[in-house]
Structures are given as C-alpha cells and as structure tokens.
Specification:
The protein is an alpha+beta fold. The chain has a single domain, classed as BirA Bifunctional Protein, domain 2 (2-Layer Sandwich), CATH 3.30.930. It contains ten helices and eleven strands. It starts with 8 loop residues before the first helix and ends in a 16-residue tail after the last helix.
Length: 325
C-alpha cells in the first residue's frame, strides 16, 4: 500500500490555478456557481453508466427497520436542472461525481466534473463557449466541428443513420473487431457505439480539440430531437489527444418524452441482463413544472488538467486515486 499522493506539490498548485481560471471564466460571464447533493434517491437509467449506491435508514417517511437505497451522483445534472426549473439563471458547478467502472489511465470511479447550463443557448452556442474555455486553459486557437454522420462517412465510409445491422457487422469484420457476444445482442445501436469507441474515437481530435455533434437519438436520452433530422438528437462530445473531454446537450424539456426515453433505457438494460434503475421522480416533477430552454455540458476536470499539464495518467492529477484512497 502506498500512502503518498501521486499528485506533486507543483502540480497541485497548477491544478488550483486551473480551477481558479475556470471560476474566473464564469464570473466574467455572470454564470453563478452552485452546489448540489452528491447523494440522491434517483439515478441514471443509461445502459452504459452504473452508479455507486449506499443504504440510509433515516428518511422521514421510511418505515421502521427499512433502509432506502441512495445513489452517488454520476453527474450533478438532475439536481442542477431542478434548480433551473425552480427559477435559477445560468449556473455552473465543480463537483465530485462517481461511477461504478474500472479505473485506468483516464478513469477513476471518483472524479471532478465541471457542469454548466446556459439558458437560451442551443448546442452550437454552447460548443463555442466550451471551445473558449478550452482555449483559456490549454491554449491553441483552432477547434474542429464534425457531425456524427460525417465522421463515420469520413472514417469508415458508412452512413450510421442508414446502415443496416449486417453492414455494421461487415465493418467490425473489416477492422477485426467482431465478437460473438456483440453480434448475438442483435442491436444495431450497440454496434454503432462499439464502432465509434473502438475504431473512430482514436482518429478524433488528434491535433486540436474536435467536437462531434448530432448523435443518433438512441444515444442521447436527455437531448432534444433535432428539428432538421428526427433521426438525431442535439448532443455533442469533444475529444482531444485521445481523451474524451466533454458531453453536452440541447436539453430535453418535455417530461413525457423524457419518461419514455428512460423507460427505453431500462428496456435495453433488461435485454442486456442489467438491473432496472429507478426513474428520478423529482427530476420528472421538475420537468413537468417547466424547464427553460437551455443547453448544458459536463466536462471532466481531471482530464482537462491532464491535457493542460501534459500528464498521461489521471492518478497524477488527483490527490489520491482509488488505489490509494
């Protein structure tokens, strides 16, 4: 066991400076810093995210001897949208987030996330603001913007919005990425996500930050459907030097459609042998009350600091990774 931090004192000071840069960036734009709970009675239904949970015995309406399962937030998204529905203006938060996943050079189950919401912004306006923040922290004066459809066509000569299951299997075979378990799922969207992660992601944002936008609707349960193409939703991601840095949306505000999307997520979880997750009733109640038109984005602070300092392992920008915690 190693008790010492892998984050050097010099880099700890640089980390603090970057956090101050972020706060100054938002202060100049009159975006208010907020703080929301790390624990929640609801969680995400996303097939590709799992929350850490704990038991709590003392909720006011809990029967004697009954424990309630609480979830550590995978992001502060639902709580922050509840603030917006309560009448808040543009807000941001630098918060701890938690995900039940393997640790690695870019992953730790506990990490720092920057999330912010801009009322009245569409996804392109928010992408531009993200690009401005990246320029402040990591420098450079060029970013790329490419649609999900175009990056597939440019990289593997396949249109992801019309490709059949068999055509996607052909792509996997061509790149020696086919696996029996993947084919047996008989899920074209799963193949798209696998192809994107394994084949396309390594080509994105190699020399400058690159935004990918307009993801298939099935991959964006919290984003508005595009008015230009109903097959896609207004979701974007940003990659730089092999790191997935940003995930953002023009936020879905329709409560009924949101419930349908969550139920579809849970149906997929059943098919894949995963547990069904409780839908966050407080979040849905907030949407029913009324969420203003807004766009929001989550950015991995530890990964941003890795890029700013030229560090390859996330453990070197955190005081103690899970292996030393």
């Amino acid at each position: 066991m190693t008790w010492q931090s892998a984050l050097t004192w010099k880099n700890a000071q640089r980390r603090a400076e970057i956090l101050q840069q972020i706060r100054q960036f938002f202060a100049e734009r009159n975006v208010c810093e907020v703080e929301t709970p790390a624990l929640s009675q609801g969680t995400v239904t996303d097939v590709y995210l799992d929350a850490l949970s704990c038991k709590y015995d003392f909720l006011a309406d809990s029967p004697a001897g009954h424990s309630t399962e609480l979830f550590l937030q995978t992001s502060p998204e639902f709580h922050m949208k509840r603030l917006l529905a309560s009448g808040y203006g543009c807000i941001y938060q630098i918060a701890k987030a938690f995900r039940h996943e393997e640790s690695g050079s870019h992953h730790n189950p506990e990490f720092t996330m920057l999330e912010w919401y801009r009322i009245g912004f569409d996804q392109f306006e928010l992408m531009s603001e993200v690009a401005e923040l990246l320029q402040v922290v990591i420098g450079g004066d060029k970013v790329l913007f490419t649609s999900y459809q175009d990056i597939f066509i440019e990289t593997i000569s396949v249109d992801p919005l019309v490709a059949t299951f068999d055509e996607l299997v052909e792509v996997l075979n061509k790149y020696n990425k086919a696996a029996d378990w993947l084919i047996k799922m008989n899920d074209a969207d799963l193949l798209l996500q696998f192809i994107f992660t394994e084949i396309i992601e390594p080509t994105i944002g190699v020399n400058e930050p690159q935004f990918i936008y307009d993801f298939p609707i099935a991959q964006a349960s919290l984003a508005k459907r595009s008015t230009d193409d109903p097959r896609v939703a207004q979701r974007f991601e940003c990659y730089f030097k092999g790191i997935e840095l940003v995930n953002g949306f023009n936020e879905l505000t329709n409560a009924n459609e949101q419930v349908i999307r969550f139920e579809q997520d849970n149906a997929k979880r059943v098919v894949q042998g995963l547990s069904v997750k409780p839908i966050d009733k407080n979040f849905i109640a907030a949407l029913n009350h009324g969420l203003p038109q807004c766009s929001g984005v989550a950015l991995g602070v530890d990964r941003l600091i890795m890029l700013a300092l030229g560090i390859k392992d996330i453990s070197e920008v955190q005081s103690f990774s899970i292996e030393r915690a």
